[in-house]
Description:
This protein has one domain (3-261). The protein is 80% helix and 0% strand. The protein has 9 helices and no strands. The protein has helices at residues 3-9, 12-39, 46-96, 101-120, 128-147, 156-182, 187-210, 218-237, 249-261. Helix 3 (46-96) packs antiparallel against helix 4, helix 3 runs antiparallel to helix 6 (156-182) and helix 4 packs antiparallel against helix 9 (249-261). The longest helix has 51 residues, at 46-96. The radius of gyration is 27 Å and the shape is rod-shaped. The relative contact order is 0.21. InterPro entries: DUF4239 (IPR025333). Keywords: Membrane, Transmembrane, Transmembrane helix. The chain crosses the membrane at residues 12-34, 46-68, 188-205, 217-234.
Amino acid sequence: MGAANLISSMPSWALFALLVIIGVLATQVGFWMGRRRHQTEIKESTAHISTAVSAILGLLSFMLGFTFSTTSSRFAERKGLVISQANAIGTSYLRAGLLPDKQKITIRKLYAEYTDLLLKMPEATDIKPLFDRRDHIHMLIWEQAISLEKEKDFPPAIISLFITSVNQIFDLTEERNTVALVFRIPDALWRALFLLNAMSMFAFGYQKGINGNHKSFGFPILPIAYAIVIVLIADMDSTSFRRFKVSQQPLINLQKMIRMSTP
């Protein structure tokens, strides 16, 4: 299991607790080593250490900001794709009303099931059967589209419009799958964030120890602050639909429209 899958499979509270524990332990170890160093006769330049600690904390903040920005942009794209997908299905559903009754009835029933299926996915624990059924519905709709070629007296322009709308649905479905399930934070970046976070907390504790400071209020606060940001990033990046849910309201509105128009 990769780092991304491991992190996304953890409950938010468990990931937060793990990060705080790692951060506090790293801070305490750094503080202990700094105190030992302070008690020896070898003295280090506190200004030089402060500069190094500021640099590593700044690097961690930059990495977290970059990762958060990337993940939030992807989350916004996921929301936009839901709107686009709902619009594409609605357009194709309405265009199906122009088709011969034989295809129109079958296709509209498939779109009704398809919309219900999409609304079940965010709450499903086992999503693979839903994906399989969705792909099967794609094939059934396409078979109906192909059968329109046999309608010799039917206007080709309407058939072309309908097929274009079907292709758009297929393209948006694949795009939504890719953005939601494939375009995620790489494992290497997660490992770097965890390592850099631990190093930063260690450096912070070492600075306190080398200066001869006693344990202060900032010891647990800094690890908690960084842990909150990392958990937010993990939640937005997670493939688990239980976190940072994308609103399905466009699909809900589409479902209402389909039910109202279906006899």
